[in-house]
Amino acid sequence: MVTTTRGTNGKSPEVMESLNPATGEILGTVPVAGGDDVASAVARAREASRTWGAMSVGDRRDQLVAFRRALAGRAEEMAELIHRENGKPRLDALLEVMSALAHLHHAALRADKVLRPHKVSSGLMANFRSTISYHPFGVIAVIGPWNYPLFTPMGSIAYALAAGNAIVFKPSELTPLVGQLLGEIARASIAIPDVLVVVTGDGRTGAVLARAEVDKIAFTGSTATGKKVMAAAAERLTPVLMELGGKDPLIVAEDADVDKAAEAAVWGAMTNAGQACISVERCYVVEPIYDRFVEKAVGEARQVRWGADDEASIGAITMPRQVDIIREHLEDAVARGAKVLLGGADQIRGNFVPPTVLTGVTPEMRIMKEETFGPILPIAKVASAEQAVEQANATRYGLGSAVFGKARARELADKIRAGMTSINSALAYAGVPALPFGGVGDSGFGRIHGDEGLREFSRVKATTEERFPLPVALLSFKLPRGTYDRIKSTIHQLYGGGMVDKLRDKLPF
Ligand code: NAD
Prior knowledge:
The chain is of the alpha/beta class. About 40% of the residues lie in helices and about 20% in strands. It is globular.
C-alpha cells in the first residue's frame, strides 16, 4: 500500500510510503524515481552489462550461485518483509522465497547447455557450416507486480541475468521494500556492481522506464497496464515480454477423484487470498458428480482460516482497490442469480475477504469473465466435459488451467487454449522450473522459466561460413550460361518429382 508525498520545500525528491495492508503500519519510505533517476539507473546497468555479458557462462554461474546463497541466507528476513508488505501469511512468504530460489538455481545451471552455440543443417548450401548462437540483449527492464513480489520478478530476473543481461527492476509501488532488499542482496553478493539496479516508484516511474533506452522490457502486471507499456515500448521498438492477467478454469470430469479435485480447487482459488495470476477463477464440473463436488468444496473452504494471525491460511487483500472489485463481482453475480454457499460480500471486513463459494454462476456474470483476484470459487455445472472445455475457452485470457479426470484428462488438457495446464492438481506447473511460463491472448506472450525463458532474454544470431567453394557459385552475378535451365530442372527433380521425399532421411534438409 502506498501514499505519495512531495518534499516539504517543493524541491526535495518525491517519496512514497509502503504500508502493511493488514495493519496500516508504515513499513518504510522510498523515493519515486523520475526521468533522471531512471536514465542514471539504465546507464549504470548498461556499464555493468558490458562486463557481465562478456563473462563466460561458467563465471556468471558462479556469481549467480553466490547470489542464490546470499538470498537463501536471508530467506527468513525476506519472507518476513513479504509477509508484512504484501499481507500473505509467513509460511506462504517463505514458500515464495523457496520458489524464487529454485528458479535462480535452475537458470544459473541451465544457461550453459541452453545458450551454447549449436550447428544446424545447411540444407542445399551443403558447403556451408551454419551455427545459431545466443547473445545477451544488454539491459532488461523488469516491471513487477505486488502479488508475488519476489517470485514473479525473479522469473524474469534470474533467466535474464543467466543469459548475460543486466537488469533495471521497478517493483510494484505496493511492495517496493521487497524490491530494494533484493537489490541489496544482489549488490552484496555479485562481484559486478549494478548488474541488478532497483528503481522505486509508481506507474509514472514504470512509464518512464518503458520509454528508456533499454533493450527489452519484461512486464508482469494487469492486461490494461501491459497495453500501455507495449504502446510506450513501440516508440523505440523495444521488444516486450508480457505476463498479464488470467481467468483460469478448472475442469472436473466424471471420472475424477472428486475429493482431490475439490481440495485442489479450493486451494487453487484461495491461496494467496486468490491474488495469483494463475488462481483458479472458474470451476466447471460435470453434472453427475456436481453435487458431491460442491459439498466437498464448501467443506474444504469452510476450513480455510482467514485473518492476520499466525494460524491464518489467507491474509489481507494487498491492494485496497481490489476489495471493491471483489465486492462488485460478488454483488453482480448474486443480482444475476448466483447462490452464495459460503462467505460472500457482506462478510468482507476491511481488507479481509472471506473464503467464498458460489454456485448457479453463468457466463455473462463478471465473476466468470473478469479477473476477480480474491478468495472466491465460482462453480458452474456443465452437461459434459466438451461443454466445460468450450466454456473454459470462451475468454480472451489464456494463462493457466487445470483438468481433473482419468481416461480423457490429457485430451481435455490439450484442448484448453492456455499457456499452461496442470492435470490432477492446480498450479503445479509453476513449481517446475524447467517448464516455460506464460500465456496467450489477453494473458500476454513470451515465456519466462525453463529453456524458453533463457532464450527469451537472448538475441538469436545466425552465422553461416563457407567451408569450400562450389564449382558453380550461385551467390554471384557470374553464373554460367544455362543456369536458368539447370535450376528449373533441379526444382522439378528435387521438389516436384519428390526426390526430397525419397531422400528425406539421407539429405540434410
Ligand atoms: P499493474 O498493472 O497495476 O502494475 C504492474 C506494474 O506496472 C507496477 O509495478 C506498476 O507500478 C507498473 N505500472 C503501472 N502503470 C504503468 C505504466 N503506465 N507504464 C509502466 N508501468 C506501469 O498490476 P498489479 O496490480 O501490480 O498486479 C496484478 C496483475 O498482475 C494481475 O492482473 C495479475 O494477474 C498480473 N500478474 C500476472 C502474472 C503473470 O506471470 N502472468 C504474474 C503475477 C501477476
